[in-house]
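Z., the sequence and structure:
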Amino acid sequence: MKKGLIVKFLVILALVGVMMIGSSCKKTPGENATEQPKEENSGTVVQEAPEEAEPAADLVPIDIELPKPMFVGTPQNIQVPNLEKPLGKPRPAFLAPAGTTNVAFGKPISSSDEEPIIGEIEMITDGDKEAADGSYVELGPFIQDATIDLGAKHEIYAIVMWHFHKQARVYFDVVVQVADDADFVSNVQTVFNNDHDNSAGLGIGTDMHYVETSEGKLIDAKGVRGRYVRLYSGGNSNNDLNHYIEVEVYGKAAQ
């Protein structure tokens, strides 16, 4: 009798142990489960689309009309330190946001030399870029400047200037600044400076000297904002005088 009870007790213990082991092996819903890609009824795996970046502004080449070249190549007799090497081919197109135009055309201009030796200061924004006599302004010696009033604040992407390209020359102490006010006190930003000894008093520049050509000097202004553009120079490799044929400012009205 006692032996039978002991056998029944052992059988019950074994059944309880089996039940406990089975329950511990069952997974809780979602536990250790790897997230699977979504599937459509067709069985095709549907991947989540990555978030797209903001589209860049539409950039287009700006249309710069160039004057007739007056000489070819770079003369070998120009002895100027830190001189930019000629590109040897046409300058690549400059890209700017669609709608960018020459906002300096016909705009008012003033100069540190109120009585130019040759020409009128207004000729700098009249659209004539040719190197012929009667197309350029000659300012006095030493540091001289010309200031263009764009009439309102603009986003400026490029500035192109022609000092004198009838013959190969290098102009010194060339500095170009943009500001919000005519006195150049508010928001003054320098976009070009090749004055390596601070003779213009505007700081030492790191840009290189360059030889004047019919392409003009294109400065990437990187969208700087301002109303006034001022250009400085301090003579050239031929004489101490300063010259301008044309200056173009490519931009859009600031929003």
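Residues 2-25 form the longest helix (24 residues). Residues 100-253 form a domain with the Jelly Rolls fold (CATH 2.60.120.260).

Let me know what you think.
H.
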